[in-house]
Amino acid sequence: MAHHQPLGERFAELARWRWSEIAFWLFAVATIFVFPNRYLILTEMAWLGLFALSLDLILGYAGIISLGHAAFFGIGAYTAGLLAVHGAIPQPVLALAVAGLAAALLGFLTSFLVMRGSDLTRLMVTLGIALVLRELANKFSDITGGFDGLQGIVMEPLLGLFAFDIFGRTAFIYCLVVLFILFAVARHLVHSPFGLSLRAIKNNPLRAAAIGIPVNRRLIAIYTIAAFYAGIAGGLFTQSTALASLDVFSFERSADLLLVLVLGGTGYLYGGLIGAVAFKLLQEFFSTITPQYWQFWIGLVLVIVVLIGRERIQRWAQWGPRRIEKLFRRDAAPAADGGAS
Q1: What gap in Å lies between CA 77 and CA 149, rounded to an integer?
Q2: Suppose 231 and one of 43, 76, 81, 320 were both cysteines; which one would form an S-S bond, judging by CB atoms 3.0 to 4.6 Å apart?
Q3: Cα-flanking dihedrals φ and ψ of residue 158, to 5°?
Q4: In Å, how far are 191, 195, 199, 234 from 5, measured between CA atoms?
């Protein structure tokens, strides 16, 4: 008689951290010491990974596509910048939290518009929100600095102890810690009953509503959470670069974010992080070869990814780690037998 594993145990097993995940984060920590001259690009990878993670929460788990996710990134960036310029909240960590909450508020207020209509409507609405905010930032240039950006952004030491240095070490460690904390929260979220209900909504919203899942409330909730994450990413961008300009609201930033998820994949959280690393490495590599045409080469890589198929590429990439894991299991089995005898 077949033994069926209880549903709760299955979900608990899925939520457990795997060795490959632990290795991923150990490698991320190791980059602090292994690449001391690359802190600037590592910092960009960290906040871009968090930004991509925020979009993956709504695209990969709820099926909400957005072309204006930069709206929340920009709100977070300008909030952190204005708080630093005016000294309203000198502590960067608290200012970062406020930046995320400001973006979450915008996400909640605009979610009611995004929930209406089809995917095409959502694309236009999200893009429109970002464009409107960009024009507002340009119009009120006495506050935002307009095309010149915010001037006089000076970051106080983190927790009053760790000053932002010109090499970017403090900024990178700061971004990496924030990324890990928010990633762990998101990971717990998607493996919770809330996250499972989102998957049900993405697969079939009518059936999800029929079994009692409050579809609109779930979508509004995840959209607001994703906006919070994007706002935190924007705040990290401003705090690590001491820069906030109209570019944070640009369509190109939202488009680059979609490219990141195309490279890394959607629906498993690590796609945004892997895609951010791949995107920045490709950008740097092609910029050194042909500075004017690097976007052409990234576009060519995307075409190749689509033609070959991401699943096939992932199987190739996982071949080595799987072989190592099988070897470990094979070595562990005789040791266990020897101990039993």
Answers
A1: 11
A2: 76
A3: -65, 125
A4: 17, 21, 21, 43
Cα 182 to chain centroid, rounded: 9
Residue 2 — very low, low, confident or very high, per pLDDT cuts 50/70/90?
very low
With a pLDDT cut of 90, the percent of the chain lying above it is 27
Take residue 273 and report the two structure tokens written for it.
Answer: 């992080």
* All residues at 6 or more sequence positions from 222 whose CB lies less than 8 Å from its CB, including other chains: 57, 58, 61, 62, 64, 198
DSSP code of residue 16: S
Residue-level pLDDT at 148: 76
Q: Which CATH class is domain 38-289?
A: mainly alpha
Exposure of 271 in the CB half-sphere (CA atoms within 13 A): 23
Q: What is the DSSP string of 230-281?
A: HHHHHHHHHHHHT---GGGG-HHHHHHHHHHHHHH-SSSSHHHHHHHHHHHH
The token duo for 141 is 């240039």
What sign for the dihedral angle of Cα 312, 313, 318, 319?
A: positive
CA–CA dist 89, 296 (Å, integer): 42
Q: What pLDDT, in 10s, does the model give residues 3-45? A: 555 656 666 666 677 888 888 999 999 999 988 888 899 999 9
Cα separation, 95 vs 76, whole angstroms? 10
The larger pLDDT score, comparing residue 108 to residue 312, is at 108
Instruction: Tell me how far apart the alpha carbons of residues 59 and 329 are, in angstroms, rounded to a whole number.
Output: 36
Report the DSSP beta bridge partners of residue 158: 162
**pTM to 2 decimals?**
0.85
The count of C-alpha atoms lying within 13 angstroms of the C-alpha of 259, restricted to the half-sphere facing its C-beta, is: 22
Residue 80: how many CB atoms within 10 A of its CB?
A: 32
What mean pLDDT, rounded, does the chain reach?
82
Domain boundaries of the chain, sorted by first residue: 38-289, 293-336
Of 230, 240, 201, give the one whose Cα is nearest residue 218: 201
